[in-house]
Amino acid sequence: MATKAAGGNWPSWLRRIAAYTLLILVATGSFWFSPAPLTEDEYCGTYLHLGPHAGFTANCDGFVYMDNARQPARLLEPRAVRQSRPLFILLGTAVGYPVTWAVQGLQSSGLLPAQVVQKLPAKYQPLLGFYIGYVLLNYAVLLAALLLFRHLYYRLTAGQGSRLVLAVLLIFLVSNQITKAFFWTVHQQMFTFLVPLLLLYVALQLRESGRWRAQLPGLAALGGLLALVYGSFVLGLPVLLYGAWLQREKQTTVGLLLRLMLLVGLFLLPTLGWIALLKLRGVTYYNHEAEAYGQLVWLHAVWQQPLPDFLQLAGRNLLRFLATLPAIGPFVAVAAGLLLWPRRPERTRFSSRCIGALLLLQTGFLVALGYYKDRLTFMLVPLLLLLVAGVLLRLPGRWVGIGLLAAALGWHAWQVLRYGPFS
Where exactly are the transmembrane stretches of this chain (predicted)? Predict the structure, then answer.
């Protein structure tokens, strides 16, 4: 009977995946018809024309990702630009080669005319399979984020959330400046949606499940591997340390400190192993983000210069970070406004405390980066949307969902019609 029940769930999962896939394709596909850039100075990359009134930007970072995925050994070269994200390159390799073989098969059979490929910029033609492979990875990451958001939505609203409200919130996740500029190109920005949701999921599991807390060493090693996929996964370490802290009453202070040190060591182990491998090849590990943009390493200034100078630098960087907040201003404003609503939700166990703590963690991380872009700050939006979801339970009336749907559709129309962003 259990097997039958489990099998009976597949149709609903398949329908859900199909619905979310359709949502992603419709929302991001409509961006093809957004206004094209007027000059090449407004974007970094190549604008690919799909027709007289349709196209999208292939980001300039993508060529290195694709070239490295085709030849992963390039990561072992001195000062390789993507050397700090080797597992993302290997994911591109794992997906890119099968897609390349499929493209070659279509070309050989005549199903993919040679003229179509020849219309691409020359440097992209041999990399078409890898380009498609990375876009498929974008789709997989965004789909995973939508599915995880749905799970967290019903979990945090104790199953009382509205399906219509969920659909509205998902529209905001798939229609925004990040998906507009980066879904159809080779980049890592789809992790902007997945990372914060995954952090929240792990935090809730550690808080509620002793079984998960027992698996902390394995989770630390897995988190360290994910940090070699995308840098923001490093935020998983504080979450795992929080899980260990939850067990503080069951062990001595020395035991707790040793456990925390073990988790830190296991989390760092994949990166240290990668650095050691490079060293064996006679190559010094190179982190492009740290060297080119000063990400995090600018904090070393606290030991290298007088305190007043450091405070001046920190203040200047804080202002630069605050300048990125208008990009997520509507989400912050709605979340703050709804939090002031006087009614309290009944018979729910929605908790904003964990979300608030993670928002503070992410904000601190973004401030400390030393490199500030609107697309990085957008990492706060998925958790802000979940915060809004919980507070919406306070709002009475059946017309709330319909009003929100109208607002979401208006938001999407504005995203399509507005000029930019392109990268």
Answer: 17-34, 87-107, 127-149, 161-178, 190-207, 219-245, 257-278, 318-338, 350-369, 376-393, 399-417
CB 411 within 8 A of CB 27: no
d(CA 105, CA 134): 19
CB atoms within 10 A of CB 325: 13
CB atoms within 10 A of CB 221: 16
pLDDT tens per residue across span 201-239: 999 999 988 899 999 999 999 999 999 999 999 999 999
Tokens for 393, please give them: 């339970």
Closest CA to 223 of 210, 209, 206: 206
Q: Model confidence over 358-398: pLDDT tens digits? A: 999 999 999 999 999 999 999 999 999 998 887 777 665 66
Q: How far apart are CA 77 and CA 32, in angstroms?
A: 37
For the chain, domain boundaries? 15-204+295-417
Q: Which residue has the higher pLDDT, 227 or 420?
A: 227
Q: At what angle do helices 236-245 and 216-226 cross, to 10 degrees?
A: 170
120: left (phi over 0), alpha (psi -120 to 50) or beta: beta
H/E element, 20? helix 10-30
